[in-house]
Amino acid sequence: QVQLVESGGGLVQPGGSLRLSCAASGNIFSISTMGWYRQVPGKQRELVATITSGTNTNYADSVKGRFTISRDNAKIAVYLQMNSLKPEDTAVYYCNAEELGYLHWGQGTQVTVSS
Questions:
Q1: For position 19, what pLDDT does the model report?
Q2: What share of the chain is helix, strand, coil (3-state, %, to 5)?
Q3: Radius of gyration over alpha carbons of the chain, in Å?
Q4: Are the C-beta atoms of 5 and 75 separated by less than 8 Å?
Q5: CA–CA separation, 74 vs 107, rounded Å?
């Protein structure tokens, strides 16, 4: 079993920055791709960014150039640096890790962008 714990969410003004962190524990040795997704009430969860164990990255068009995903393979942790935040970035952000084809999810952390 894999457990994921996110941290770093909060309230920020438009144009501001936040850094989300996600630490994995448990059966971490088979984790491959990790990523961040987000969800607002009434909408489907959507991809924000993913990163493979080889550090290949993929971003949603809406965050390209503003968000940066990175990972620490020694700690089995993934991070999301979010810059130039917009009100439409407001959502619950979920960490995700793939283990032998199975997707594990964290509990989510709220990000609110508002003046």
A1: 98
A2: 5, 55, 35
A3: 13
A4: no
A5: 22
| pLDDT tops 90 at residue 29 | no
Q: Which residues of 30-52 are buried (b: 16+ CB within 10 A; e: fewer)?
A: ebebbbbbbeeeeeeeeebbbbe
What confidence score (pLDDT) does residue 1 get? 84
Q: How far apart are CA 17 and CA 22, in angstroms?
A: 17
**6: burial class by Cβ within 10 Å (0-12, 13-18, 19+)?**
buried
Give residue 63's pLDDT: 98
CA–CA gap between residue 109 and residue 80 (Å, rounded): 12
Q: How far is CA 64 from the centre of its chain?
A: 14
Is the CB of residue 94 less than 8 Å from the CB of residue 106?
yes
